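Protocol step 4 of 6.
Sequence for PhoH-like protein (Sphaerisporangium melleum) entered exactly as in the expression construct, tag removed. Do not edit the line below.
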Amino acid sequence: MSESSETRSAPNGARTSEPPRTKGPSRTQAKVVIPDEYPMVTILGSRDELLKVIENAFRADIHVRGNEITVSGSPEESGLVVRLFEEMVELARSGAQLTTDAVERSVAMLRMSSGRPADVLSLDILSSRGRTIRPKTVNQKRYVDAIDKHTVVFGIGPAGTGKTYLAMAKAVKALQNKEVNRIILTRPAVEAGERLGFLPGTLYEKIDPYLRPLYDALHDMLDPDSIPRLMAAGTIEVAPLAYMRGRTLNDAFIILDEAQNTSPEQMKMFLTRLGFGAKIVVTGDVTQIDLPGGQQSGLKVVQDILDGIPDIHFCRLTSADVVRHKLVSDIIDAYSRYDLATADQPQAIKGGKGPRGR
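Step 5 output, structure tokens:
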């Protein structure tokens, strides 16, 4: 049996009703009133595509009449649906675009009680070329916040979690705000190894495939016509890790990508390049190490060496933070299960390797 209760005003302007306590089968009814300034098509989506996502995500009956949404279900489910609509109103208020992906991520955050979706999905990192770069998960927001608060940050997690992309967005923003004088992006070109000499072209042409993902990200965030000028002036530098040796990097935002392919010695060399007014972000995936002959990864070792040192932060992302195609998260989890199941078996012959983007 459904019961209704008085409608109240919520802090974000949407009015909601408190689910009442009932006897017998636990079923309550709640009502959300969407403020007049937000068209229902914004909240429900074109052809109700957002409403359909919400209906599929919850075991509750949702009815819409005008700008009033009535939710019937268990107290837990009804409460979550009410909170979701309140968060969606807050996202609309902040100017964030309400998409099926944003709604699905909001549902996941609310179910895990991991934070307010509006706090995560409305955080603008960088606006460029008609699009805004924002974190899409709670862990991504924690990663971005850590970059603001700490001098050295390690972003460790699987492919597709935005480790490098978000770090580069923060670097470009810091440059625009004149917090740093230059951006330095670097990667180890481990797979070239001794074969570099046999590849055609200059040294930069030989290592270009390993640095190309960094250039691609830059083109997403800056006017492509300005990139050659900034690189010629030394304001932006994209170089292999070996070029960092012997330097002191002051007033710079420095990103080391693919750090799982550094040796412990290379990692120490890189971290000791830190100069005054500089910030370092190190990104990598310890499950995708390409070092030859079972060589130890500097990214694995550094976690034990530097853990607990003030102003150094380790941020760990998981498959839940993948922002690529939904299948990528499933693929990562499947490989993790396989690795655990075969951990004690002889190592299988690995497939070919090549440069990978994050």
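Step 6, annotate. The CA atoms of residues 260 and 299 lie 5 Å apart.
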